[in-house]
Specification:
Mean pLDDT of chain B: 79
Oligomer: heterodimer
Strand order of the largest sheet of chain B: 3-7-6
Strand content of chain A: 15-25%
Distance between the termini of chain B: 137 Å
Shape of chain A: globular
Shape of chain B: flat
Largest interface: A-B, 34 and 25 residues
Structural class of chain A: alpha/beta
Order of helices and strands of chain A: EHEHEHEEEHE
Number of helices of chain B: 10
Largest sheet of chain B: 3 strands, antiparallel
Number of strands of chain A: 7
Order of helices and strands of chain B: EEHEEEEEHHHHHHHHH
Chain lengths: 149, 336
């Protein structure tokens, strides 16, 4: 299923994706294609991509090939999904320790669709951080480790 | 307590019975009312001696309120085109019912006795007034006749002066145009002198053509720029192609479409859509088209950041430098 979504393999390509997406939410999935949770997430992403085509552009990024961004975005768990709008990073409060990205997979397609819509509406109103509409029980739990520990 | 009674002068209801009339307020009201009426009566009295007759004007329809009778009375007498000033009021004041009403008024309101005489006009006075009225009418007629005569004289004078002017203008004009059908002019003039008083129109017709020709000849001469007939190129009369239809050499190759191309049109459509989006959305002023350097990083508020979002990039770069230094240090002992 991950072959239906466009893939980005270098920093330059990611840069270009960020710069070129205009007036749409940019969804970047950081992970590895073989990872099982990644596969789940990719499945949801690909199935919803056509419905969300007017609101969002979805790309898959391999963490091993873009170490700069892996460090810049502090990606320690995969899959991690980062949201951008017009080159600006959008933060979402999921009820989890990290607001800058969504860690793990979504439980249902509807969760993802709702989240993208909330981000889009917030961005249109000029908000850089929005509240996630997903039920906190459906959000995967993880421990946030400080990098130097 | 006496029954309720209304005093028309004070315009109030009072319960004092007969006592109200002697009260200060009532007397004051009475005085003011009489003071208002007095000037009118005085003006009418003056008119007894010298009655004035004037031409009728709608203002002469005015009425005066007679306090004693409690009704409105026509001030001036008007008949047809003429009016006698204060005639109506005088008539009323001389009438017997007014006398009765005045007596009653004085008794009821307990006004001063001496004042009463001023508001009455005897019948002798009225007879005197009638006589003076007749005199006034006669003098008015005489005046009118005089005015009419004066106006007639004025009109005659104006006409005479106009005729003189016309004759004086016509004579010098006939001399400097001998070519212009002098015989016709001569014949016109002849008829004119015969029919001097009756027809003034022919002389008026002669005036316009003579001055026109004069102006056309004595104006500034126009600049001559040469004959415009080259044998090779045609012109408008021969039916050649106009200069703006001739194909330029630049346009001979390539498509000659005017206006924007299709891509430009699509871009314009996109721009229109953009205008409709809210202006305060995130990244509204983000420049999508400029090229980015290799080291460009997007605006990302990092997780373990020690400052604001825009400082996160700087912090990342310093951390990256520190990390690379560390890895260098680690690598070196391995190599060696």
């Amino acid at each position: 299923m991950s072959f239906l979504l466009p893939k980005l393999t270098s920093k330059k390509e990611v840069d270009q994706a960020i710069k070129s997406t205009a007036e749409k939410v940019l969804v970047l999935r950081f992970g590895r294609d073989e990872d099982p949770v990644c596969l789940q997430l990719d499945d949801i992403l690909s199935k919803t991509s056509s419905d969300l085509s007017k609101m969002a552009a979805i790309y898959l990024v391999d963490v091993d090939q873009t170490p700069v961004y892996t460090h810049y975005f502090d990606i320690s768990y995969i899959p991690s999904t980062v949201f951008f709008f017009n080159g600006q990073h959008m933060k979402v409060d999921y009820g989890s320790p990290d607001h800058t990205k969504f860690v793990g997979s979504f439980k249902t397609k509807q969760d993802f669709i709702d989240l993208v819509e909330v981000i889009y509406r917030g961005a249109m109103r000029g908000k850089l951080i929005v509240q996630s509409p997903i039920d906190p029980q459906n959000i995967p739990k993880y421990d946030l480790l400080y990098q130097d520990i | 307590m006496a029954p309720a009674q209304r005093c028309p002068l004070c315009r109030q209801t009072f319960f004092c019975g007969r006592g109200h009339v002697y009260s200060r307020k009532h007397q004051r009201q009475l005085k003011e009312a009489l003071e208002r009426l007095l000037p009118q009566v005085e003006a009418a009295r003056k008119a007894i001696r010298a009655a004035q007759v004037e031409r009728y004007v709608p203002e002469h329809e005015r009425c005066c309120w007679c306090l004693c009778c409690g009704r409105e009375v026509r001030k001036h007498l008007s008949h047809g085109n003429l009016t006698v000033l204060h005639g109506g009021l005088l008539e009323h004041l001389a009438s017997p019912e007014h006398k009765k009403a005045t007596n009653r008024f004085w008794w009821e309101n307990k006004a001063e006795f001496q004042m009463k005489e001023k508001f009455l006009i005897s019948s002798q006075d009225y007879a005197r007034f009638k006589k003076s009225m007749v005199k006034g009418l006669d003098s008015y007629e005489e005046k009118e006749d005089e005015v009419v005569k004066e106006m007639a004289a004025q009109i005659r004078e104006v006409e005479h002066s106009r005729r003189e002017l016309v004759r004086s203008v016509l004579e010098p004009q006939a001399v400097p145009d001998p070519e212009e059908g002098s015989s016709a002019l001569g014949s016109w003039k002849g008829t004119n002198s015969q029919v001097a008083s009756a027809s003034q129109q022919p002389s008026y017709l002669d005036l316009p053509p003579a001055p026109e020709l004069d102006w056309m000849e004595t104006g500034q001469p126009l600049t001559f720029i040469g004959h415009q007939d080259t044998p090779g190129i045609g012109n408008i009369h021969s039916g050649a192609t106009p200069p703006w239809m001739v194909q330029d050499e630049e346009y001979s190759s390539g498509n000659q479409q005017i206006g924007p191309s299709y891509e430009e049109f699509l871009k314009e459509k996109e721009k229109q859509k953009l205008k409709k989006l809210p202006p305060d959305r995130v990244g509204a002023n983000f420049d999508h088209n400029t090229s980015t350097s290799v080291g460009w990083l997007p605006s990302f508020g990092r997780v373990w950041n020690n400052g604001r979002r825009w400082q996160s990039r700087h912090q990342f770069k310093t951390e990256a430098a520190a990390r690379s230094k560390q890895s260098h240090k680690e690598k070196k002992p391995n190599v060696s």
